[in-house]
Amino acid sequence: MKEYKYIIVGGGMTGSSAVMGIRKNDPDGTIAVISKEPYKPYNRPPLSKGLWDGKDIEGIMRPIEKYDVDLFLETRVEKIEPDEKWILTDKDETFKYGKILIATGGEPIQLPGAPEGVISYRTRADYEELNELAKTKQTFCVIGGGFIGSEIAAALTKNDKDVTMIFPEIGISGLLFPDDLSKFLDNYYREQGVNILNGCLVDSISKSGDEYKVEFHNIDTAEVSKSEFDVIVVGIGLKPNLDLAKDAGLEVDDGILVNEFLQTSKPDIYAAGDVANFMNYGLKKRMRVEHEDNANTMGLIVGKNMAGDKIKYDHMPFFYSDLFDLGYEAVGEMNKDFTIVSDWIEPYKKGTIYYLDDNKIVGLIFWNLWGKVDQGREIIQEGKEYKDKDLKGLFTE
Asked: Distance between the two ends of the chain, CA-based, in angstroms?
């Protein structure tokens, strides 16, 4: 039986950041990183951004080697035994641990009945497959109008592909943005050459030879349509990987519940990243976040805590996206049930979108406004009440 002072389950951004955190406090403690992927840790955002603009794929890799870890790739942890502090892998290997981190992230939600070859986009392997297909195929269907769908559609279009987006919302990122902005993005994407089929639900996907047939219907009119494509890419959300935590008897609720030090209900088992349900102290509520800033910051802190620190995770994470020549940074909570107020410097090109709950700012989107996130965090944490007129010009260029 192998024995390690620290075991990290998951070789993504959170896991590799945790290694860095451990090494800041413990230069010599033995570390094992166990990852189901065939690749060493890498940065995930470029998979739908920079790699499509010519960035070298080797540039996204993280320098895990310099931290003196044992890396077990293409390996799954099947069981954690919290009382005796050992794990079992799918290769029938048993490892003892002192402290263990669950950073298993999530799996992309699959379309029921989707045939082989449909890409539910998430990993470097998905990028490699889609990039290879883009060299020879021309017609692409992107199912989903959210974060991944909008970025992949833009990336493929910029690479001279014929792209159709199908999604049920009123517009792109319609679950996040106010309706007028989502509708603007529909038209903006059409101007870039994307065929936008908003307000539509996919009913089935079939495959004949190398061609896919997608059947879908319009939600309002119930009209059924069919279209054929060379490639199907799905981006409709993420489901956190909770089976390991549940089997170990950990408390879960839309993620693995952690305390302020990122410990689970078993103190020597930690959780972080996409899979962790944590207290956002700035918003005074629990949440689970699936973005880069949270993965990196939480990973670094959990590593330090595993190696002896007691650092409270009180960071308010932000996220960002690139949509052709538009882009944004966002912080806090964006919920369509909140009061939404837009303050445009230039309509739909530059401005701030406020999300208010009981007249308090709880979320902010900085649309083509950069470097405002820290100021936004401060305003959210102040908890001050605002009237609509008070928001005008609060953030300027």
From this structure: 59
Report the number of secondary-structure helices (H) and strands (E) in the chain: 7, 25
Q: 């918003």: which residue's tokens?
A: 283
| Closest to 21 in 3D by CA, of 261, 360, 371 | 261
* CATH among 3.40.50.920, 3.50.50.60, 3.30.460.90, 3.30.240.20 for 110-234: 3.50.50.60
Kindly report the number of other CB atoms within 10 A of residue 206's CB atom: 14
Half-sphere exposure of 348 (CA within 13 A, CB side): 13
Cα separation, 289 vs 317, whole angstroms: 8
CATH topology of domain 2-107+238-306: FAD/NAD(P)-binding domain (3.50.50)
Question: Secondary structure of the chain: what % helix, strand, coil (to 5)?
Answer: 25, 35, 40
Percent of the chain with pLDDT over 90: 99
Q: What is the mean pLDDT of residues 317-324?
A: 96
CA angle 23, 28, 33 (to 5 degrees): 65
Evaluated on CA atoms 336, 340, 346, 350, the torsion sign reads negative
Task: Quote the pLDDT of residue 176.
Answer: 95
The C-alpha torsion from 283 through 377 and 186 to 238, rounded to 10°, is: -50
CA distances from 52 to 38, 164, 241 (A): 21, 18, 28
**Nearest-CA neighbor of 186 among 199, 201, 204?**
199
Which pLDDT tens digit goes with each residue over 136-150?
Answer: 999 999 999 999 999
Looking at residue 50, the DSSP 8-state letter turns out to be G
CA angle 188, 235, 35 (to 5 degrees): 135
141 DSSP assignment:
E
- What confidence tens digit (pLDDT) does each residue in 83-125 have? 999 999 999 999 999 999 999 999 999 999 999 999 999 999 9
> What pLDDT was estimated at residue 73?
98
Query: Is the pTM higher than 0.70?
Result: yes
Helix (H/G/I), strand (E/B), else coil: 324: coil
pLDDT at 397: 84
Q: Where are the domains of the chain?
A: 2-107+238-306, 110-234, 325-391
Residues 312-320, mean pLDDT to the nearest whole number = 97
How far apart are alpha carbons 376 and 212 in whole angstroms?
A: 45
Q: Are 32 and 11 in contact (CB under 8 A)?
A: no
What tens digit of pLDDT does each residue of 340-355 get? 999 999 999 999 999 9
The total number of residues written for the chain in this structure: 397
